[in-house]
Amino acid sequence: MAGDYLAGAFSELLEEDGLTVFGRGMGIRALLSKFIRLYNDAEKWGTRLVFCLNVVGDEQAVFNVLLDDGCPRAQLPVVVTNETPPKDRQQLYAKGGVYLITSRILVVDMLNGVVDPAQIHGFLVHQAHRVTETSSEGFILRIFRQANRSGFVKAFSEDPEHLSRGFSKAQKVLQACFLRRLYLWPRFRAEVIRSLNAGTPIEVVEFHCKLTPRMRVVQEQVTALLDMCLKELRRCAYL
Question: Which of 58, 89, 158, 169 could join 28 in a cystine, given CB atoms 3.0 to 4.6 angstroms apart?
Answer without folding.
Answer: 158
